[in-house]
Design a protein that fits this description.
Blueprint lengths: L1 H37 L13 E5 L3 H12 L5 E5 L7 H4 L14 E4 L5 H14 L4 E7 H14 L5 E7 L5
Parallel strand pairs: 1-2, 1-4, 2-3, 4-5
């Protein structure tokens, strides 16, 4: 009888430990997933107006959104950050001929950034040199939370950062 009680207590104790482990280690991932999923794609719904757009490479829809903002006159300058060092403008945006009113002088390629933190650090001097008072930060919903936090921590508070979330193309 005593042995049976010890086994029951031991099983109960294990269930409690496993449940606690699952809650402590799994809950943060579930919470973060919910935050990411709740980021609304704004590129089709909101018309952002800013001095500059900063596009973080990593998805074709991001670059195209940046060019759309520039061609519609919603931004003055476009900074594409994280571009491969050997890429040319026409390779990055093969649809350039369909954007007849654009000038290459309005597009700046940042070829040095390799991380989100690098994107923020490398684009800040460009944003300041172009005298941008506000920027439209263009990236995917999966990347926006981290990117916005990183840019907000790196950029001075005087430069307003608007989120411009695009579809990652995988949904």
């Amino acid at each position: 009888m005593k042995l049976l009680r010890t086994v029951k207590d031991n099983v109960f104790f294990r269930v409690i430990i496993v449940s606690l482990f699952v809650f402590v280690f799994l809950y943060p991932f579930v919470r973060e997933y919910r935050r990411i999923v709740s980021v609304e794609i704004s590129s089709w719904k909101n018309d952002v107006l800013a001095d500059c757009a900063v596009v973080l490479t990593g998805g074709s829809n991001r670059v195209r959104e940046g060019f759309d903002l520039l061609s519609r006159g919603q931004v003055r300058k476009l900074i594409i950050s994280g571009v491969n060092s050997s890429s040319q403008m026409r390779e990055i945006m093969p649809l350039w001929p369909f954007y007849g009113n654009l000038s290459e002088r309005d597009v700046v390629l940042d070829r040095r950034s390799m991380t989100t933190f690098g994107n923020a650090q490398q684009t800040l001097p460009l944003v300041e040199a172009l005298q941008c008072r506000d920027i439209a930060l263009v990236t995917s919903s999966l990347h926006m939370i981290r990117a916005h936090k990183t840019f907000s921590a790196t950029y001075p508070s005087q430069i307003k950062i608007y989120k411009q979330v695009v579809n990652s193309g995988r949904t």
